[in-house]
Amino acid sequence: MEDKFRIGVITKTHGIKGEVKVYPTTSEVDRFDYLEKCTAVSEKGVEVPLVVTGVKYFNDQVILKFEGYDTIESVEPLLKKELYVSREDAIPLEEGEYYVADIIGATVIDTEGKIIGKFKDYMETPANDVYIIETTNGKEIMIPAVDEFILNVDTEENVMRVKLIKGMM
After folding, report:
1. Closest alpha carbon to 77 in 89, 62, 66
2. Does the global pTM surpass 0.85?
């Protein structure tokens, strides 16, 4: 299981007082309203802990202010870094919910118990999320993330049971 979740990417500075624009990568954008701390992570894995002191929204981006970063020059090293929160600071789950990060690589089986492949990724669409499954023969299929097709997700066993209809394979 993942111990941290990506919530956004710092895209550029905003103004001259140390604020940054963040492109959110979470489906729960309002989670930034409650964000107190996060970690900026570089491509090389270098982590910078951050304390959030301000949150605003502008178009499709979030503007964040961090403690100790008060100038444009001070935040420039944070540009292009991904922002993560720990599992403890993540949005709490409701009954029957799971973090998508916890099912990456899960074995996907159909209603007859046949292995279809592995959960590879997902994409967000206006109607619903779509799960991308890499089949056992190396192809990709897409399954809408709705109860009609996703019958059960067991994060402990790392297994997803799905119902496929004609044309999905």
Report:
1. 66
2. no
